């Protein structure tokens, strides 16, 4: 595969089950990546573009948990996506009170 080909990897995290890591639920390249991205946009799913992260995630199989080495970066992205949606991640209630979003 051409390293420059567009790719999309979809992750899902069930925040009600603290024992499970985010899982790869979709992935594709080229036209399939475009279809995944379009479907995500149509359904209000936030999209993060990171060629280095997508390279690592593209090596995982559908249904596979993300590796422990990615927990921190994925947790940050999930927390940030909550904030962008006006939600507060569990356990962040006190932290968000002290953030100045007007900057």
UniProtKB/TrEMBL annotation:
**Record has Oxidoreductase as a keyword:** no
| Coiled-coil annotated spans | none
- Repressor is among the record's keywords: no
Which InterPro entries does this one have? T3SS_substrate_exporter, T3SS_substrate_exporter_C
Keywords for this protein: Bacterial flagellum protein export, Cell projection, Cilium, Flagellum, Protein transport, Transport
Q: Which GO terms describe its biological process?
A: protein secretion
Gene3D superfamilies registered for this protein in UniProt: secretion proteins EscU
What GO cellular-component annotations does this UniProt entry give? plasma membrane
What is this protein's function per UniProt? Required for formation of the rod structure in the basal body of the flagellar apparatus. Together with FliI and FliH, may constitute the export apparatus of flagellin.
Known PANTHER family for this protein? Answer: FLAGELLAR BIOSYNTHETIC PROTEIN FLHB
The family annotation for this protein states: Belongs to the type III secretion exporter family.
Q: What is this protein called?
A: Flagellar biosynthetic protein FlhB
Q: Give the originating organism.
A: Alteromonas profundi
């Amino acid at each position: 595969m051409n390293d420059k080909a567009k790719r999309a990897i979809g992750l899902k995290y069930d925040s009600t089950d603290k024992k499970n890591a985010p899982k790869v639920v979709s992935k594709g390249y080229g036209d399939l990546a475009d279809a995944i991205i379009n479907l995500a946009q149509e359904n209000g799913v936030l999209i993060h573009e990171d060629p280095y992260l997508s390279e690592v995630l593209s090596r995982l199989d559908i249904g596979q948990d993300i590796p422990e080495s990615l927990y921190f970066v994925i947790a940050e992205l999930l927390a940030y996506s909550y904030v962008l949606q006006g939600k507060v991640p569990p356990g962040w209630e006190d932290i968000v009170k002290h953030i100045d979003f007007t900057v």
